[in-house]
């Protein structure tokens, strides 16, 4: 039996398609050295940053666009996800109706479904597999509390005139052979997030976008004559505009965007499963299943028949030791083996974690920094950023090119500020643990 690769994402071992190996973005890109200039500098080579650069280059090919990353494309959260591409942004639809009204809630959901379709289109252009067009993402439950929550959401979708089918236990069983009482079916997809990131980086390079790496951002300073100066360990970049697609690093950089909590979330993956087990777990339809509880488990199959399984207790970063991650991984493996009888002895080959940015009101932050109108921030997708990160990048690029795209509740300059002094952090960790235990009890 192969020893699980702790901390190494499954995608590191997957052979990328030819389109995913960007010749102009080497594995060890050159660092920022001396003083450089650019029209727009994007900090962060994840999906949000790469989408910004891609759409900037598409809108205005003559604009000088520079992407700088602390490491390189796909090295951060965008390359460490689980590849679930579904229409989720902000609070659940019933809560969105209560908070923002039916019209805005409808537009929020429409924006998220459009984001999914845009990623599918972009993936097709870049040669990244997203599975069959009729693939589903099922949010399901087997508890009374989960049924009540899904019923409220189903009623809200009906009142808004949105097509989100309710599935019975039998209908869920026809997709995946796991016991659930009911669920909601969304049009969705699955993909290799690191491959998409690398392919998007290659497309940016082909459009003339420059890349520099191994350069963590240290400071952001306004220039007296306009524009911004970005300070890195080896030099500075002077830029007319800057986009900080740094997600959960906002706090460590002191950015005035409210509180974007850095949380580590975890996943495991198995060796390729036998064909009959793949069929039982949705292999023919590429269906992904997500527990309705906010910290519940979820799973999907990869094209080569591996089961990717995630969820459980997020860990407040930074983590002082590996014991918390080890405990979360152990819990995931135990629940994976209970998912289906055929998984009792499944070989787990990969274990990894990725960092997400969580806000106090479940909404991302996409807007200019207070006091620094030439600097934009993108982050806080609350673990649902695969589709929306691409959409956020396109939005910011359109604004920087003089457009006036539709504004939604997450187009703002800051999230609510939460008190996070050192004495409070253990309380927050305890709260996350309680939520995770509740999810396990419901499961």
From TrEMBL:
The keyword Oxidoreductase applies. The keyword Oxidoreductase applies. It is an enzyme of class 1 (oxidoreductase). Its EC number is 1.-.-.-. GO terms for molecular function: oxidoreductase activity. Keywords: Oxidoreductase. Gene3D superfamilies: D-Amino Acid Oxidase, subunit A, domain 2 (3.30.9.10), FAD/NAD(P)-binding domain (3.50.50.60). Residues 1-28 are annotated as: Disordered. Pfam families: DAO (PF01266). InterPro entries: FAD-dep_OxRdtase, FAD/NAD-bd_sf. Residues 39-398 form the FAD dependent oxidoreductase domain. It comes from the Bacteria. PANTHER family: FAD DEPENDENT OXIDOREDUCTASE DOMAIN-CONTAINING PROTEIN, SARCOSINE DEHYDROGENASE-RELATED. This is NAD(P)/FAD-dependent oxidoreductase.
């Amino acid at each position: 039996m192969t020893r699980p690769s702790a901390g190494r994402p499954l995608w590191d071992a997957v052979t990328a398609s030819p389109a995913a190996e960007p010749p102009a973005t080497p594995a060890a890109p050159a660092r920022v050295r001396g003083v450089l200039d650019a029209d727009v500098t994007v900090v962060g080579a994840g999906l949000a940053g790469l989408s910004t650069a891609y759409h900037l280059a598409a809108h205005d090919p003559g604009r000088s666009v520079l992407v700088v990353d602390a490491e390189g494309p796909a090295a951060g959260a965008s390359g460490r996800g689980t590849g679930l591409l579904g229409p989720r942004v902000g609070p659940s639809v019933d809560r969105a109706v209560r908070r923002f009204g039916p019209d805005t809630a409808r537009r929020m959901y429409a924006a998220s479904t459009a984001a999914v379709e845009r990623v599918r289109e972009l993936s097709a252009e870049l040669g990244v597999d997203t599975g069959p067009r009729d693939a589903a993402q099922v949010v399901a439950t087997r508890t009374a509390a989960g049924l009540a929550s899904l019923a409220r959401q189903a009623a809200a979708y009906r009142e808004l005139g949105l097509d989100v089918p309710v599935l019975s236990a039998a209908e869920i069983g026809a997709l995946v052979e796991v016991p659930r009482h009911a669920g909601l079916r969304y049009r969705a997809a699955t993909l290799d997030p690191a491959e998409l990131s690398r392919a998007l980086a290659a497309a940016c390079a082909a459009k003339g976008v420059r890349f520099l790496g191994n350069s963590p951002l240290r400071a952001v300073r306004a220039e007296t004559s306009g524009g911004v100066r970005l300070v890195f360990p080896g030099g500075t970049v002077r830029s007319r505009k800057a986009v900080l697609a740094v997600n959960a690093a906002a706090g460590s950089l002191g950015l005035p965007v409210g509180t974007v909590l850095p949380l580590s979330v975890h996943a495991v993956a198995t060796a390729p499963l036998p064909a009959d087990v793949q069929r039982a777990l949705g292999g023919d339809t590429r269906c992904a299943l997500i527990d309705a509880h906010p910290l519940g488990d979820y799973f999907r199959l990869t094209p080569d028949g591996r089961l990717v399984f995630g969820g459980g207790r997020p860990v407040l970063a930074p983590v002082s030791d590996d014991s918390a991650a080890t405990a979360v991984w152990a819990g995931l493996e135990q629940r994976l083996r209970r998912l289906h009888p055929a998984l009792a002895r499944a070989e787990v080959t990969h274990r990894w974690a990725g960092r997400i940015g969580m806000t106090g009101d479940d909404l991302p932050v996409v807007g200019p920094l207070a006091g620094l109108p030439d600097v934009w921030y993108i982050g806080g997708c609350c673990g649902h950023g695969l589709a929306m990160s691409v959409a956020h990048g396109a939005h910011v690029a359109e604004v920087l090119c003089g457009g006036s795209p539709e504004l939604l509740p997450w187009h703002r300059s800051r999230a609510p500020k939460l008190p996070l002094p050192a004495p409070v952090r253990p309380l927050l960790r305890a709260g996350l643990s309680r939520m995770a235990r509740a999810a396990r009890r419901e499961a």
